[in-house]
Amino acid sequence: MRIERVDDKTVKCFLSNEELQEYQIDYKDFITRSDKAREIVHEIMEQAKEEVGYTPPKFAFDLQIMMVPDQGMLLTFSEKDPFEGKDAGPLLDCLKEMQQALTKGLENRDAAPREAAEPSGQKPEPVRSTEAVFVFEHMQELMDYAAVLPRTLRVFSSLYRVDGQYFLYMEKGRAAYEKYSKACVQALEYAVGYGAGEDRMTYVREHGECLIAENALRKLHI
Questions:
Q1: Options 1.10.1740.110, 3.40.50.2300, 3.40.640.10, 3.30.70.1950; which CATH number does 88-112+122-220 get?
Q2: What are the distances in angstroms from CA 173 to CA 86, 195, 209?
């Protein structure tokens, strides 16, 4: 294991093919954040502190993985502002708008007045979104989000990567709408709302790499 400090926020670690075989680990383990990958990352962080004086980020880090042909794997850990190089205004506006819409969905579930009932005597159901897409800048943020969700949450979820960002598609599935909405609101604490609907996902599927096709949140749960 060879560790190199790039700057205050970035450190690189090279694992040879022999070391990968010894650890019995590969690229997919780091993508899905398997137990073996978490152990290796912890070992790398400890060794980086001792050897090069690296201080791990307090919150989340970005992990870049590159296979070196016939040699091994290069892991780059870096801490950076998720809004770096971007106009944060539109992203924050989108986040607030999505959060307000999802919160309103919860508030409106009992808001229909009795006098507005249909002739059949049943209240009209409010329009409810059952799909959402969230963009995570860092894999660790996605892992932190998955960790706060209950393992029994029965939503459908899949994970894609587009231009270094992680797109989480979430559908209500068999979960109660209240639990699904709560999960969406919680997602906005870690990610930016990308929108909802098939047109959004068509772009992601066409331009991105599918990392986890089904049960992404459950598989990423620590």
A1: 3.30.70.1950
A2: 34, 17, 23
Q: Contact 76/41 with Cβ under 8 angstroms?
A: no
Q: Are 184 and 191 in contact (CB under 8 A)?
A: no
Among 178, 1, 169, 167, which Cα is nearest to 75's? 1
Could you list the pLDDT tens digit for every one of the 222 residues in the chain?
A: 888 888 888 889 998 889 888 888 887 787 777 888 888 888 888 888 888 888 776 555 677 888 877 888 888 888 755 444 444 454 455 545 555 555 555 555 445 444 444 455 554 444 467 888 889 989 889 999 999 998 888 899 999 998 888 999 988 888 888 888 888 888 888 888 876 556 667 878 888 899 999 999 988 876
DSSP at 82: T
Q: Is 198 exposed, middle or buried (0-12, 13-18, 19+ CB in 10 A)?
A: exposed
The residue ranges of every structural domain in the chain are: 2-78, 88-112+122-220
Calpha distance 200→197 (Å, rounded): 6
Residues 6+ apart with CB under 8 A from 92: none
pTM: 0.46
